Amino acid sequence: MEYNHWSISEEITTKVWMHGFEINVRVETGYQDVNVISECLGGDCYGLAELSKKITPKVVLDIGGHIGAFGLCAKRYWPDCELIAVEPCKMSAELYRRNLEDNKLKGTVLNKAISYNPDRNKLLYASRTSGGHIVLSEKEAKEYIDTRYRKYEDRMDDIEIITAEELTKDYGVIDLAKWDCEGAEIDAFRKMDKETAAKFRTMVGEYHLWGDGKKILQASPLDEMRFWEDTKRKFPHLLWSWTGTAGGADKYGKFQAWPKAH
Question: Where is the Methyltransferase FkbM domain (predicted)?
Answer without folding.
Answer: 62-211
